[in-house]
Write a structure and sequence with these properties.
alpha+beta, 37% helix, 234 residues
Length: 234
């Protein structure tokens, strides 16, 4: 049987069983489409996970204050700002780009009769923003001089801005934080979250201002250490 006869026989078979042939073709199309869709969804999910990990800061190391129990004794490791100069020394720590002390507390805030509880009121250095991939949507960040002077200025997230100010421009407005006035100098850009906490319901202020007015001068909760590259975070 030559090629022409083979093709004619196949066409005759398809034409004689149109319903079965149609269902076969439909099944093949659905199968191919399903495979393409699954591959696309898988690649998209992988890219989304990679992007979220990158936003967390792949070149940062978080050191948390705590303790260690050995046998019957407990050793406490308190983090203080006295550790920072050694970590910033380029001779002893050449791969450290920045060190940001962190204290976090929940604070009740208010603006002209509107109240809002901020779960993450953070006291830190300006370098914290870059280490944690925060950017400024409007306004400006505080400086290290603001920290040295203990200026009561604050950056707020978009959720905090919406809940406290609504349609009012928050820049240069003063909010009451546990009885102390802080001036809003910037609003943070939206940031994707990876857990149950809203990363946009946040306030970030100079460490000294938070210690003086809100938390006192206890130990730090964390040190965020940013390396010069991800290869040095090991």
């Amino acid at each position: 049987m030559n090629l022409f006869e083979t093709v004619r026989f196949a066409v005759r078979g398809v034409a004689a069983n149109k319903l079965r042939s149609g269902l076969t073709v439909l099944g093949m199309l659905i199968g191919v489409a399903a495979v393409i869709l699954l591959v696309a969804v898988g690649n998209g999910s992988a890219k989304q996970v990679q992007d979220r990990i990158a936003r967390l800061g792949s070149s940062t190391l978080t050191v948390t204050s705590g303790g260690r129990t050995a046998a019957t004794t407990t050793q406490n490791f308190a983090l203080t700002t006295t550790l920072i100069p050694a970590l910033q020394d380029k001779q002893t720590a050449p791969h450290v780009a920045s060190v940001s002390p962190v204290i976090t507390s929940s604070q009740d805030t208010a603006y002209q009769g509107t109240s809002h509880t901020i779960g993450q009121f953070i006291g830190t250095y300006p370098s914290y923003l870059g280490a944690e991939n925060y950017t400024i949507a409007k306004g400006a960040t505080f400086t290290q001089q603001d920290n040295t002077d203990g200026r009561k200025v604050v950056l707020i997230g978009s959720t905090t801005a919406d809940d406290l100010f609504g349609d009012t421009d928050p820049l240069d407005q003063q909010i009451t934080v546990n009885g102390t006035l802080f001036t809003v100098i910037g609003v943070l850009a939206n940031k994707d979250g990876t857990g149950f906490t809203d990363p946009n319901d946040v306030a970030i202020a100079p460490l000294t201002a938070v210690q003086q007015s809100l938390t006192g001068y206890g130990s730090l909760q964390q040190l965020i250490i940013q390396a010069t590259s991800a290869d040095h975070v090991d």
